Amino acid sequence: MIIALLNQKGGVGKTTLAVHLAAGLSQKGRTLLLDADPQGSAVMWSSQREDAPPFTVTALAKPTIHRDIAQIAHGYEHVVIDGPPRASDLARSVIMAADFVLIPVQPSPYDLWAAQETVGLIQEAMTYKPDLKAAFVMNRKSVNTAISKSAKEALSELPFPVMTAEIAQRVVFAESAAVGQTVLEREPKGAAAREVGAFIKELEKVAA
Description:
The protein is α/β, with parallel strands linked by helices. The N and C termini lie close together (about 10 Å). The chain has nine helices and seven strands. Helix 3 (about 65-70) packs parallel to helix 4 (about 90-95). The chain is about 45% helix and about 20% strand. Strands 3-2-4-1-5-6-7 form a seven-stranded parallel β-sheet, with helices on both faces.
């Protein structure tokens, strides 16, 4: 299964979610995190670690991923692609390489507007890949606020489902990233780890 994370707006926590998804999937089989974002944030995360991450991290920000993915993914049970911001040939290549596209969205009007552009790219790819699937996930939401509910209602008008699992904005995500860890390692019994676990469990069902 090849899962790509994309959003045309930066700052939605896409890389954080990609890293945690790869970490969770690595417990179930050999996993590759492909950093297709020119900023290289996932590779930078892995360079902060004292030991090797539990999954492979490789940088490839070239618009040939859809042609190269079969060779790149060989030997891996799970592949997570941290896609680039902005609509581009690279973003289109990432979508064409994926089996499933996950769109992280913060509960804000700006994110909802940007999500529509991502939807357009995916629908364009579905002309060539009719089996391609996609879904939204609410990420970096403020704890104990009602804004995510109204954001979910707005997203429900778009053609892809909205995941039930949500990831809140928590300091532990930044603290763990600074040392190349995930919240699953830093606070395995904490609220953030529970949210990530629920997200991965639901995603496996949605993407199947």
